[in-house]
Each structure stands twice: as structure tokens, then as C-alpha cells.
């Protein structure tokens, strides 16, 4: 199967370089160094709907830069914008027009850059003392010169799970989903909780269903603003539902035939019982995985 969207960046992250100020300065001064073309946090697309890159020297000298890594020896950087945007993906529809057109590797490079840039734009002050922070380790850290605190980019783990019972899947429709759009249930992993415990808790809280046999499928970095989606499969103990309407607009069971029809891409949408998640979402990948597993 194809890779999950936003994965497969193919860069040499060059971690040893991040902690070497002299080497970083050399890379910044290199005539080969490139900066990602952006409009705020949105990508600027070029030929073939690919990311655009500009000579790093074209940026103002005081621009905060994140070192993304090396691509075939070429140092790549991303400029930190004036402001971030930690809204969920469904509130950032304008950016999706460009994002959905990006080739797979460019999408992965952009996703990682977006997470970092957004974090920096929203963390310019120390959480300990409130004083301004400064970029460090090539953009993979911020330091507070006032109190000495070190701050690191945040990634929040989220479980997203297929819930199966006798060949059918439990899917939910979020409060902000388009009409008839269903996806896998999902929720943040809480402190002191394992992935398996988070899956069981979230399914119980959102749908009133007890699950067991939790297993891992795949993961996806999700840059809105910065989650790690942990795709899982679980087995339900029954089909009776008690949907939490503060979390979901609806949840229901769907047969294999209904999932196949929705995922086929050839059926008349009006005849489908539900519309599948978009291809950029790990839930789409997981539904494909489930159908292939049943063959």
C-alpha cells in the first residue's frame, strides 16, 4: 500500500548539525541554501504543483529560520512567520486547496515544516518566566536567556481507531464534518495512559462501546497544528451504541459492502450510505488497510 500522507519526507535531518553553530552558519551562508516559499503558513506552489524554493539570501537577515535538513546535499530552511495558527484542519479550508495538490514527498516536507513554523510563531515567550525566547539548535529548540529554560517543539499523540464487530466497522461523524462524511473515531492520549487504554476509553466515551484486542496499524504526522495520529484496530464486544452528542454528530455500524462502495471512488455519491474521509487523512489509509485485510 501507499505511504500515509504527510510521511516520507526523504530528507537527511542532520541532527548533529543542529547542535553545531559553526556548521549551521556555513549552511546558511552557502549559495546553495534554499528557503521554502510560503504565504503565511500556506505553501506557494510552482510548476507541477510542487513546493517553491528561493535563495536563502533573498530573505531579510533577521528572519528566524528552521533548518529542515539536507536534500541531496542542499540545505533547506523554512522562515518562521509573524503569527501561527493552531486551529484544527477543518477551519483552514483555504490552505487545503494548495495542500491537496502537492506531490507526496513535498507534502511530507511541508507538513513537518508547518508544524515547526507554527510552534515557533506561537512560542516566542518563555512558559516559565514570560521573557522573550530565541531560536536554538537550528529551529528544533527555543532557549530563554533570562531564566535558562529550554523549550522543544510539541507533538500531541492522538489515537484513531477502527472498531470492528462481526465484519462491520463503527465510524463516526464529527460535529464539524460535512453531511454524510464519516471517519474513524479518534481522541488525544491523556497523561499516564497507554495507547491501548486511550483507544478503549475514547470508544467508550464517544460511542458507549467496550473494545479489546487493540493492535497497531500505522501512524501519521498531522500538522494542524502538530499531532501524531496513532492508527489502531480494535474489536467491539457488542453493537449497542450510546453516542456522546457533545463529541459526535452521529456514529453507526457499516458493513464491508458499504465501506467498499464508499472507498471505490466510482460509485454515485447519492447512492452511498456514507462519504469516506479524504485521502490525506490516515483514516482513509486505515479503511483501505481493513478492506485489503479482509480479502
Individual helix count: 7
Structural class call reads alpha+beta
Q: Which CATH class of the largest domain?
A: Alpha Beta
Strand residue percentage: 25-35%
Radius of gyration: 21 Å
- Overall mean pLDDT: 93
Low-confidence stretches: none
| Helix-strand topology string | HHEEEEEEHHEEEEEEHEEEHH
CATH superfamily of the largest domain: Nucleoside Triphosphate Pyrophosphohydrolase
Fraction of residues in helices?
10-25%
Number of folding domains?
2
Main sheet properties: 6 strands, mixed
Number of strands: 15
Instruction: Please state the overall shape, judged from the principal axes of the Cα atoms.
Output: globular
CATH-defined fold name of the largest domain: Nucleoside Triphosphate Pyrophosphohydrolase
Label the CATH architecture of the largest domain: Alpha-Beta Complex
Span from first to last CA? 14 Å
Could you provide a short overview of the structure?
The chain has 295 residues and is α+β, with helices and mostly antiparallel strands. Helix content is 25%, strand content 27%. The protein is built from seven helices and 15 strands.
Give the topology.
Elements: H1 15-18, H2 21-29, E1 34-36, E2 38-39, E3 42-43, E4 53-55, E5 65-71, E6 74-79, H3 93-99, H4 104-122, E7 134-136, E8 141-143, E9 150-151, E10 156-165, E11 168-174, E12 185-188, H5 195-207, E13 211-222, E14 227-236, E15 248-254, H6 256-263, H7 282-294
Parallel strand pairs: 1-6, 10-14
Antiparallel strand pairs: 1-4, 2-3, 5-6, 7-8, 8-9, 10-11, 10-12, 11-15, 13-14
Helix pairs in contact: 6-7
Amino acid at each position: 500500500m501507499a505511504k500515509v500522507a504527510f510521511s516520507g519526507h526523504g530528507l537527511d535531518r542532520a541532527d548533529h548539525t543542529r547542535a553545531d553553530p559553526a556548521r549551521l552558519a556555513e549552511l546558511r551562508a552557502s549559495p546553495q541554501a534554499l528557503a521554502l516559499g510560503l504565504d503565511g503558513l500556506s505553501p506557494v506552489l510552482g510548476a507541477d504543483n510542487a513546493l517553491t524554493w528561493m535563495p536563502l539570501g533573498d530573505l531579510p537577515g533577521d528572519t528566524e529560520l528552521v533548518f529542515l535538513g539536507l536534500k541531496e546535499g542542499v540545505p533547506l530552511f523554512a522562515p518562521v512567520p509573524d503569527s501561527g495558527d493552531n486551529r484544527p484542519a477543518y477551519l483552514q479550508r483555504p490552505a487545503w486547496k494548495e495542500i491537496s495538490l502537492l506531490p507526496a514527498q513535498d507534502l511530507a516536507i511541508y507538513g513537518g515544516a508547518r508544524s515547526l513554523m507554527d510552534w515557533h510563531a506561537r512560542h516566542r515567550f518563555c512558559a516559565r518566566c514570560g521573557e522573550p525566547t530565541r531560536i536554538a539548535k537550528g529551529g528544533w529548540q527555543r532557549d530563554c536567556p533570562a531564566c535558562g529554560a529550554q523549550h522543544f517543539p510539541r507533538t500531541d499523540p492522538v489515537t484513531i481507531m477502527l472498531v470492528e464487530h462481526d465484519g462491520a466497522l463503527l465510524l463516526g461523524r464529527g460535529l464539524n464534518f460535512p453531511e454524510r462524511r464519516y471517519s474513524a473515531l479518534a481522541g488525544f492520549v491523556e497523561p499516564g495512559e497507554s495507547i491501548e487504554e486511550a483507544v478503549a476509553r475514547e470508544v467508550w466515551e464517544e460511542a458507549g462501546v467496550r473494545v479489546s484486542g487493540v493492535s497497531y496499524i500505522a501512524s501519521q504526522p498531522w500538522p494542524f497544528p502538530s499531532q501524531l495520529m496513532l492508527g489502531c484496530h480494535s474489536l467491539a464486544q457488542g453493537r449497542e451504541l450510546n453516542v456522546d452528542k457533545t463529541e459526535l454528530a452521529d456514529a453507526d455500524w457499516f458493513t464491508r459492502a458499504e465501506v467498499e462502495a464508499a472507498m471505490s471512488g466510482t460509485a454515485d455519491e447519492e447512492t452511498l450510505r456514507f462519504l469516506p474521509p479524504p485521502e490525506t487523512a490516515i483514516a482513509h489509509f486505515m479503511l483501505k488497510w481493513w478492506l485489503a485485510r479482509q480479502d
